Amino acid sequence: MRLTFTKLLVCGWLLLASTATIQAQGGDQLTAVRSAIASGSSHDLAQYLAPSVEVGFDGDSQNMNTTQTELVLKNFFAKNAPGKFDIVHQGAGPDGTPYAVGRFAGRNGTYRVFIGLKANKSTPTIDKIDFTKE
User: Fold this and answer.
1) 70: which of 57, 98, 114, 117 lies 20 to 30 Å off by Cα?
2) Coil, helix or strand for 81?
3) Residue 19 to residues 10, 38, 77, 85: CA-CA distances in angstroms?
4) What is the pLDDT of residue 30?
């Protein structure tokens, strides 16, 4: 009985430690992502994209590869020159995968931005980005 309890305790600590590591990596990643969006640089943002990204604008979303996503974001930033971008909320899903919600103020209005990260072996990458006009 004591051995089972000890094993469960060790497994629980390992799970908590791995979740904290993923969240820390996601937080670092989000700082760089925030900077790229704030400057309107699709090129800088592209280095954090997963091979397949769900990209959405006002409820219409599509899965795209990294190159397509970069081009779509480049066009979006060209039409909506960034004025300001702030992350207003960060969190993690039940599996520890980090996400962020931000507010992007551009030339054509203000957008709520959802950024979902996918945990992989090295660092989290963006697998979902959604812009919804407020």
Assistant:
1) 98
2) coil
3) 14, 28, 33, 27
4) 80
The one-letter amino acid code at 54 reads E
Quick one: which of 15, 20, 28 has its CA closest to 123?
28
Return the exposure string of 48-82: e unless at least 16 CB atoms fall within 10 Å of the residue's CB, then b: bbbeebbbbeeeeeeebebeebbebbbebbeebeb
Q: Output Rg (C-alpha) for the chain, integer angstroms.
A: 17
**How far from the centroid of its chain's Cα atoms is residue 28's Cα?**
11
**Phi, psi values for residue 56, rounded to 5°:** -130, 145
Supply the mean pLDDT for the chain.
Answer: 82
CB 34 within 8 A of CB 113: no
Beta carbons of 116 and 42 less than 8 angstroms apart = no
Q: How many CB atoms lie within 10 A of CB 18?
A: 12
CA geometry: angle at 105 spanning 103 and 111, to 5°? Answer: 55
Q: What is the pTM of this model?
A: 0.75
Asked if residue 53 lies in contact with residue 127, where contact means CB atoms within 8 angstroms, the answer is yes
